[in-house]
């Protein structure tokens, strides 16, 4: 989905995360089906709530990356608590071969509170799928 001529902002006053999913090779199509169900559920709200998103594959053809910068970390926190988010991310993790790694960044003019709220180690805000979990770097 592209918006021709859409502004691609420079963001220095918000946080950003990059979630790396390591998808089982035989589950790529199903992973994309579930991922699309997650982000396409309410595209207009997503567009209003984020500075930018990027969804795509890494050099490793089974590494899927979701990069997002939300305008308000409190909104991101609220979304992560919803049953829908927990269910869909659990489905995604069940299709992975190892834990999802999440890198956090704070904009050069933003608070570093994200690192306090989401400490390094196993995620307390993402579901588990058996032994597969989310891990904050």
Which features characterize this protein?
137 residues, alpha+beta, six-stranded mixed beta sheet, 6 strands, 30% strand, globular
Tell me what the structure shows:
The structure is a single chain. By secondary structure, the chain is an alpha+beta fold. It is 33% helix and 30% strand. The protein has 5 helices and 6 strands; from the N terminus they run E-H-H-E-E-H-H-E-H-E-E. Strands 2-3-1-4-6-5 form a 6-stranded mixed β-sheet. A hairpin with a 5-residue loop joins strand 2 and strand 3. It is globular and about 40 Å long. The mean pLDDT is 93.
Beta-strand content: 25-35%
For the termini, the CA-CA separation is 30 Å
Q: Strand order within the widest sheet?
A: 2-3-1-4-6-5
The residue fraction in helices comes out at: 25-40%
Beta-strand segment tally: 6
The profile of the biggest β sheet is:
6 strands, mixed
Task: Tell me the structural class.
Answer: alpha+beta
**pLDDT average, as an integer?**
93
Q: Per the principal axes of the C-alpha atoms, what is the gross shape?
A: globular
Question: If helices are DSSP runs of H or I spanning 4 or more residues, what is the number of helices?
Answer: 5
Rounded radius of gyration (Å):
15 Å
Contiguous low-pLDDT stretches (5 residues minimum) are: none
The arrangement of helices and strands along the chain is EHHEEHHEHEE
């Amino acid at each position: 989905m592209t918006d021709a001529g859409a502004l691609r902002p420079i963001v220095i006053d918000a946080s950003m995360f990059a979630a790396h999913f390591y998808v089982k090779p035989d589950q790529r199509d199903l992973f994309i089906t579930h991922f699309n169900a997650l982000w396409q559920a309410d595209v207009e709200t997503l567009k209003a709530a984020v500075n930018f998103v990027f969804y795509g594959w890494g050099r490793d053809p089974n590494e899927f990356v979701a990069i997002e910068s939300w305008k308000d970390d409190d909104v991101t926190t609220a979304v992560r608590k919803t049953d829908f988010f927990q269910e869909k991310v659990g489905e995604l993790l069940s299709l992975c071969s190892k834990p999802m790694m999440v890198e956090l960044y704070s904009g050069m003019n933003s608070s570093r509170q994200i690192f306090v709220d989401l400490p390094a180690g196993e995620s307390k805000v993402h579901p588990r799928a058996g032994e597969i979990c989310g891990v904050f770097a």
